[in-house]
Amino acid sequence: MAKPDPNEFDQAERTPSKIGESHEQGITHDAVFGDITKDGPNYRDIGMLGTAVLMIKSQIGLGVLSIPFTLHALGMVPGVLIIIAIALMTCWSNYVIGIFKQRHPEVYSIDDAAGLMFGRIGKELFAALFCLFLLTTNQVFTFCCGSALLSLSIALNALSLHGACTAVFVVVAAIVAFLFGSIQTLSRISWLAWVGTVSILTAILTVSIAVSRQDRPAAAPTTGEFHSDYRIISSPSFTDAVAAISSIVFSYAGVPAFFNIASEMKDVRHYNKALTICVLFLTGVYLVIGILVYYYCGSYVASPAPGSAGPLVKRVAYGLAFPGLMVSCILPNHYTAKYLFVRFLRDSKHLTANTFTHWAVWLSCTGGVALLAYIIASAIPIFGNLISLIGALMGTILSFQPYGCMWLYDNWSDGKANPTWWWRMMVCWSVFIIAIGSFLMVSGTYASIVAIIDGFKADGGTRPWSCADNSGST
């Protein structure tokens, strides 16, 4: 098969029935949402910049707080190379989502794509994985929301000097996620992504500046001369290395949410532009912040990173990051609930009409997702290990393997009949993506489970549903 046409998005969009077709004045028919009218929510209303910031916020947040610690585990140079490699691989996965969505406009989420490729069993398997991962991102997002609730509870503990039981703070975070996550459309919620992105960046920049100017990181010995012991190349154990790589995977694991975001774009021709902005911005931030903080802190870097700058700066950083951490709860809650909502009401008039059924199902979805995320955040209250487990167990299978399969699904038959060098190269690349994702999933899950077990066994370790202060945990 010939090399893909760079104007493929334009060509697909020029056919109205591919995306949405106006068949009456004021009524648009969408392949996913059905008839969209002015009397109901408009699910096709996100512009290019709104799309870009939703992509960015679906990934940035929790992950950037753990990047300096992963550089310590891997070493500066290997860590940077792995970040760039994972960025390129997930960028390709995101690109394939845009192409696949254009060719199959009825696809709303990753389980729809799995259904086309693997049938009903594949659809239900990926539906379960998608919902679990979203409960913990973003992007699939239940687990992402759970770790976001945990991160928000850490912030509340830091700001209040442990003014209340940590379990109470997790409940507060879950309520916030439910209330704001219940806003119906992504176009109405995209402003939160702007707030969240600016908030997180301001906080992390504050920490970076603080650690570069302070005498020593908070965890370093208080006496004697201090020199950062950062390592160019480290020699971690297999489990430590894989767990660190899984954390990086989690930092880019918002991939599945890009299906949902693309489905609500006004003009899908701008998908690639938004994706380019997202990948360049995100990778630049990860590299700059990760290198800077690790360079100055060395082995005394904390996870999350604000703990490296001492009690005062930590409180300031969490205060600045607080809106962003709330958005990190809200967006995954919205994505997961929206997936369930569309699944329950698809091909029904209630999907796009403000009826009692519409609101009852929608609020049940957002409330149920917030409750499950709360349970997850309270049951595994160890920030770094939770991120590694999510990245390994579900972040990989939702960010790598399906997209290699999607490319093969769309291109195998035609390419096999007339193979070219480009087709052969892309087949090899797709198989590589599937293989590396499978390896990281199995090995990373094992390493993360071992780390969680060790954490629970350690003296003074954080326990499930604990009232203990978690703002200084690693």
From TrEMBL:
Disordered: annotated span: 1-23
GO cellular component, one term: membrane
Membrane disposition: Multi-pass membrane protein
Basic and acidic residues bias: start-end ranges: 11-23
InterPro entries registered for this protein in UniProt: AA_transpt_TM
Organism superkingdom: Eukaryota
Localization in the cell: Membrane
Keywords: Membrane, Transmembrane, Transmembrane helix
Keyword Transmembrane recorded: yes
TM regions (residue ranges): 46-67, 73-97, 125-155, 161-180, 192-211, 241-262, 274-296, 316-335, 356-380, 386-409, 421-442
Keyword Transmembrane recorded: yes
Name under which the protein is recorded: Amino acid transporter transmembrane domain-containing protein
Native source organism of the sequence: Clonostachys byssicola
